[in-house]
Amino acid sequence: MALPALDQPLVQRGLPVTPSRWDPATPLVANLEEAGAGIESTRLWLVLRRFFLLVADAIQDERPATAEKLRRASPHWIRHAHATHALARGAELIMVRDNRRHASISTTSAYLHSDEVRRTLQFDQAFEARKV
């Protein structure tokens, strides 16, 4: 279900859906007013924020607690959720750090559960001591 949803905007823009044929310079989210251009980060933030609010309104009666969380959500929430879920499903801490472009592994460690954080930091300290 997710893959066709991701392919559709590419097809509509006349772009290939095969990753090996993607042009790295092509914007991920197109600007509807300017062919070949992407949207600014502030515009994406506003679109996602509006989406969260619309969904919150739609589910308010059935899921009020979830609706309230969505009203407080921001696009950064998606970034945080991705890191948390990736680590919980076995992604390596270093890979998540690199994908998030964190300078320090300690920053990425914030997305681990407390026992994982303690274990990771102990190993980091042990291996840092060996580098000296």
From TrEMBL:
Gene Ontology terms for molecular function: DNA binding
Protein's name according to its UniProt entry: Site-specific tyrosine recombinase
A family per Pfam: Phage_integrase
InterPro entries reported for this sequence: DNA_brk_join_enz (IPR011010), Integrase-like_cat_sf (IPR013762), Integrase_catalytic (IPR002104)
Domain of life: Bacteria
CDD domains found in the cross-reference section: DNA_BRE_C
Biological processes annotated in GO: DNA integration; DNA recombination
